[in-house]
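Reproducibility note. Readers wishing to regenerate the assembly model reported in the main text can use the exact inputs given here. Chain order matters: entities are listed in the order in which they were concatenated for prediction.
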Amino acid sequence: MDASIATLQSAFRQGAPEAVLILTAFVVFLGGAFRPGKLVWGFVCLLGFVGALLVVLWHPFDLSKCVPTVSVLWTDPLCHYTRIVAIVGGVVLLLASWDELPHTQAADYFACLLILTAGVGLVGAANELVTMFLALELISIPTYVMLYLPRTGRPAQEAAVKYFLLSIFSSALLLFGFSYLYGVTGTTNIAAIHEAFARREVTMLPGLVMAGSLFVVAGLGFRITAVPFHFYAPDVYQGTGNGPAALLAFIPKVAGFVAFIRLLGFTGPGPVLSAIEVGVEMPLLLWILAAITMTIGNVLAVWQDDVKRMLAYSGVAHSGYMLLGLAVNPYLADKANGGVPAILFYLIAYGAMTVGAFAVLQALSTDNRAVSRNDDLAGLAETHPGLAMALALFLFSMIGLPLTAGFAGKFQLFVGVLSTTAPAESQMFRWLALIAAVNAAIGAFYYLRLIGIMYLRTAIRPLPGRAGLTGVLALAACVGFTVWLGVYPAAVVKFTRNAGQAAYPVHHLAGRP
Amino acid sequence: MSLPEPIITPAGLEAPFDLSTYYPILIYSVIVIGFSVVTLFGSWLISPGKRTAVKMMPYESGMDPIGDARQRFDVKFYLIAILFLVFDVELLFLYPWAVVAYREGADALWKAEFGRLVFCEILVFFASLAVAYVYAWRKGVFAWR
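Running the prediction on these inputs yields the following structure tokens for the assembly.
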């Protein structure tokens, strides 16, 4: 009883980094309403990020006295990972969208960015369905505002409305799925739900469990742009500015995959479920989702003549690669290779290369001319050799060439898919690896085509470009991460392995056969 | 059929899942369906039934349902509606707190351990709404133009 009380009372201390972020957001919202300004509020926003990062790094919370089935938040290594990725990502996104923001709207944009980062951190920490849902909404709602803020043209309005409607639709699906899980297990605590699954109490109602899981997968599938839910991505990325597009390509995917890992019980305070306890349907569903998402994303990306649409479909394909890790995780004997750690690594790699690619577009665009068509980039190697080289690096990384982040990430995911031990499943996953390899080849085609356009053609209409200091800094950070993760991935691999490890052995429950 | 055993979790005893305890939902849905069927059938049965052109039009909140969907509204209606919602939800949230948390027979242990914490939480909630209120005021939402 005392342990439960102490656990509940610790919720505020566990959420300290998010409290710092949200307090800073309040200051920026209020201050910006009294005195608009980009420089001062951007600086305050950066201070908030740094403060939250310091709290994350130097104030680790001791979980040993907490009761998992009572705790609302669970600040384990996975949460630590999510917070660091969110805050570093937030800083890079802040710098990347700096030049695009009008003076009067900058404060609102920055405050929304702070709240959204707090939301991602809370998704990593959530150990309760209600907290998880609120954290995901804390990401979605500022995104609507950010999509609408920068521009007021017709395409931007279409993008904002499309994203808004589909996002609330997906939230409804997720909530519906949560209500089934609650109805079946009688609790909203994620660790307790997994215990109920591990005890096989819920097998008497397999239909309800399956329906609930299906709705949850659909709701989260929207956030990671898995295939039946990917339709909004190209239109929204194309219609909005480069900063919000980079944000949409990165942040919801981090949150979506971390939420998947938590809800499927791959890493967390509850028991880690084996393939039989999850039910064979779930890995099979993820298998199908991975195969379709990769294939449709890559095939549709081939037909795009707009870089932002191409990046959207390529993001869909990369989500498919990451779904490989989710599908195979229950069947892995050694969960340190492939599976969850590989997804966590790939998320960082994907973020660096995708945000970097949008940062290049941002550096080339001006207020009067938005660069997004393939032809706009013709002859970029002559007019802007530095930017062309950076974009080529990101595209090579998306192909997965060695010495780039994309290679290290794909390598880990593929190793995971090929190292299943059960005979029947390993056959199934070899097929999946084959599909992924074919997809990587299709992907190489359209990425190389863009590199060809940049290096082999001459410029039709030279681009002015407006790369300011902040844009160059964001670009440098993305280049740095892409090269670092490719050349020397060991440090990050260790970090993601630590984050993705299961806290509890598979069958830790007492009194089980 | 015998009832399944209660489940022991680290949080304590929990009732097992039992579908039959959900019978109020069944009663509710029967009432809902019954009400709509009875209303529709009843009005068809007892209405005089004089058909005019206006009466045959689908009813859409008093607006003409045929025409351009892009009608313009003044945005101030939306702003007021949203602000109303903010305070409405605030009240909705405060009411159960005020009634349940500090009532006479409240659990002594709960009061000792969480009484202050929950009070501080409510203050944080107030503060965040105050921030939203000041923000709206500075952005000129309250000026009825």
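We highlight two features of this model. Helices of chain B lie at 23-46, 75-100, 108-138. The longest strand of chain B covers residues 7-9.
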